[in-house]
Amino acid sequence: MKQPTIQIQSLSTGYRGKKNVTIVAQDINATIHGGELTCLLGPNGAGKSTLLRTLSAFLSPVSGEIIIMGRRLRDYSDKELSKVIGVVLTEKTDLRNMSVEDLIGLGRSPYTGFWGNLHQHDREIVARAIEMVGITALKDRMIQTLSDGERQKVMIAKALAQETPVIFLDEPTAFLDFPSKVEIMQLLHKLSRTTGKTIFLSTHDLELALQIADTIWLMDREKGVTIGTPEDLALQGRLGGFFTRKGITFDMESGLFRIENECTRTVRLTGHEPIRSLVEKALRRNGIAVTPDACPDMEIEASADMLTLKQTGKDTIGFNSISALLEELQL
Amino acid sequence: MKRSVILDMLIITALIFVLFLLNVALGSVSIPARAAWNILWGVPDQDPIWTNIILKSRLPQTLVAIVAGAGLAISGLHMQTVFRNPLAGPSVLGICSGASLGVAFVVLLSGSIGGVALSRIGFAGDIALTVGAIAGALAVMALIVYVSQRVKGNVTLLIIGVMIGYVANAIIGVLKYFSVEEDIRAYVIWGLGSFSRVSGNQMSLFVTLMVILLPFSALLAKTLNLLLLGDAYARNLGLNIKRARLLVISYSGILVAVVTAYCGPINFLGLAVPHLCRAIFRTSDHRILTPACVLVGALFALTCSLIARMPGIEGALPVNSVTALVGAPIVISVLFRRRREETAE
Predict the structure, then answer these.
(1) A327: Cβ contacts below 8 Å, ≥ 6 apart
(2) B230-289 residues touching A, CB cutoff 8 A
(3) Separation in Å, CA of B255 to nearest CA in chain A
């Protein structure tokens, strides 16, 4: 199952000017596997887009070699490459008056003849791509009437219709709302498993990538590229090192990041899940740290129907919502 | 192709046929429809004056209108797609201005330097105008093609094209300043556009040239469809962007050069017809839009040409005025209707 489809050997990416060369990332050595979803993470300006543009052959490498399916990228002709790599980009196309089906049909262009007419075989592949992405209901809609998320699905279907073993996506979820982001990421993960394609994407959605990706690439101007499964990277402390700043901590237990507020008070919190965790989260947001240990002056007990606050020297008060409890504590 | 598309095309073709006959039959000299029909079909023993009017004046004018309309519409469609700009048209790359510059050189310099007013030498003058226009247009086109292979962004290319247009117009202004009034008038009249300036052998040459050129537009349909997706997607689908640009720009450049040389700069038609076609056929697919533009462009030009010499109007109105006066309301109303339907959906 785990086959290396793309090998990157001491690759440097950048832009070649008339006289000088601007290098964006240096000496990248890596392998991308088929049947996997690989996510490229990194801060703005780390060179994610430049790397993707280089891998998609929109930009030639400054030095080094990219080998796709056992053959050097620069040895492919434009025509051959269109059958090996499919891309999905961030920006919206300003297409109007074209049906979803026709647009996905354009994905067949590398295979169609002079006029670009689709044959029965091509139509079947387009229909299958539409089905895989789950947009059968949108098939006859005009592109301009779709939401951003639907549009991105259409472009993914286009890449599927292109029948390439490799699909590169440059921040495909950038302009989407949260449910659409999750949907697209899950769709891509599912596709990588069911089709065995190599799917490689850049994203800023750290949490999603950590939960859904098989392999994570961390990219940074100074540290270069670090590669591993999200869990390995967490154990090695690499993830923390990459993104931890003031206000962000890495929660080793969940393998996710947490926004940390500075806490000035502490309270003992007991009770049942999930209420206990939710109360803890609300308290932390308001600068109150939670300890399981005995606490001298404040104690909160959370049960299914009541939040009870005990403070030394005061009466015990019961609350029926978290906001009421917070209001009391603010005083 | 869908049924409705074919039906629409047939209706438009029928309308073209009707307008063709009207163009031949109607004019400042009234000729009975039956006689006009007979003359067209070469039935012998017809009134010699009528025969002359129809075969020497109205028929050529009608044929010129058809091919010129089709050519400008195609060129407008191509420019709008290549530059992904709905305001692009045949004149956008300064090719029209190049033709104007060529004509200005011929008309204005021949008067000032050669001492002959071109308007007086008739036929030879016509040929000189045509040659001047084609030379000017092709020179600008060569420049644009050269630039298009060197700059990356479409917007840059568009701006350079517009700049070249300004430079050409500025040179024309200077030439005008130093010219005699008579020559300026001849130049201005050329600039108003006309389907009737061409006659005789020149007309046959023009129509033949266009009939040969127009079918080539079909070869670019797939390329243009890919360009709709934007450069990056198109490249990823195996399209060589530089070569595609080169082909499309030089092809429509030649179309504009030829039409402008024979009919003068006709502005509105090339910009408006592609929008009309998109609205009527509700598609961006160039496999449908290309034939649609040929048909609608021809129909549009025939309508304008007919209105320009409605009975009661002495001589003919300038084509450029008629295209916009008649065309703008049509285009606006069609776009409005489609927009309403879209929002109602």
Answers:
(1) none
(2) 230, 232-233, 235-240, 278, 282-285, 287
(3) 21
Instruction: Quickly count: other Cβ atoms within 10 Å of residue B218's Cβ.
Output: 16
Quote the CA–CA distance of A86 and B44 in Å, as a whole number: 66
Does the CB of A97 have a partner CB in chain B at under 8 Å? Answer: yes
Question: Contact B236/A82, CB-based, under 8 Å?
Answer: yes
Backbone conformation region of residue B91, classed left if phi is above 0, alpha if psi is from -120 to 50, else beta: alpha
* Strands of the A21-33 sheet, one edge to the other: A21-33, A4-16, A63-68, A71-72
pLDDT reported for residue A2: 66
Q: A55 near A232, Cβ under 8 Å?
A: no
Q: What is the pLDDT of residues B248-291, one digit of tens each?
A: 989 998 999 899 988 888 888 998 999 999 888 988 999 999 99
First to last CA, chain B: 23
Q: Answer whether B250's CB lies under 8 Å from B145's CB.
A: yes
pLDDT digits (tens, 9 = 90+) for A247-265: 777 777 777 777 777 777 7
Pick from B235, B283, B345: which is nearest to A98 by CB?
A: B283
| Tokens 């409890």 belong to residue | A325
- Give the best residue of B237, B239, B284 to mutate against chain A (max A CB count within 10 A): B237
Of B226, B232, B240, the CB nearest to A87: B232
Question: Which helix H or strand E contains A46, and what residues bound it?
Answer: none
Give one word for A224, left, alpha or beta, with left for phi > 0 and alpha for psi -120 to 50. Answer: left
Task: Flag if A110 and B237 touch (Cβ within 8 Å).
Answer: yes
Average pLDDT over residues A27-34: 91
**Which candidate, B202, B255, B219, B271, places its Cα nearest to that of B61?**
B202
What letter represents residue B87's amino acid? L
Q: Given a cut of 60, is residue B30 above it in pLDDT?
A: yes
Q: For the whole model, what pTM was predicted? A: 0.85
Tell me: the pLDDT tens digits for B176-228?
A: 888 888 788 878 888 888 888 777 778 888 999 999 999 999 999 999 999 99
**In the prediction, which pLDDT does B1 show?**
59
Residues above pLDDT 70, as percent of chain A = 96
